[in-house]
Amino acid sequence: MVGIDELDLPAASITKVAKKALDNNALFQKDARMAVTKCTTVFISFLTNYSNESARARGKKTIIADDVIKGIQELGFEEFIPRMKDMVAGKRKKTRDDYDDLQVIVIS
Predict the structure, then answer these.
(1) What is the spatial distance between Cα 108 and Cα 94, in angstroms, rounded to a whole number?
(2) Residue numbers of the domain that contains 70
(3) Residue 84, class by beta-carbon neighbours within 10 Å (0-12 exposed, 13-18 middle, 19+ buried)?
């Protein structure tokens, strides 16, 4: 099993997300980028662990969106849950719409 110290998200991806959250005039030093990268990796590890526990409690091995939402709640980020549920519902609707469009193309 790989230890958390051996895992890191791509620095370019972290920088891109962080810069979108910052003012245009803000600077993002290398050590700050590294700290955010490590914290993000740890956060995702914790979230995945809690989500996996939720899936196992359902008797499943596959983590679904509801498991992730439950993990967010377990981590104490309840204020993000309504937005996450809206995003999941929007994604499911888009997927259904795309599937319906595909059926029209296949049938035609």
Answers:
(1) 21
(2) 4-76
(3) middle
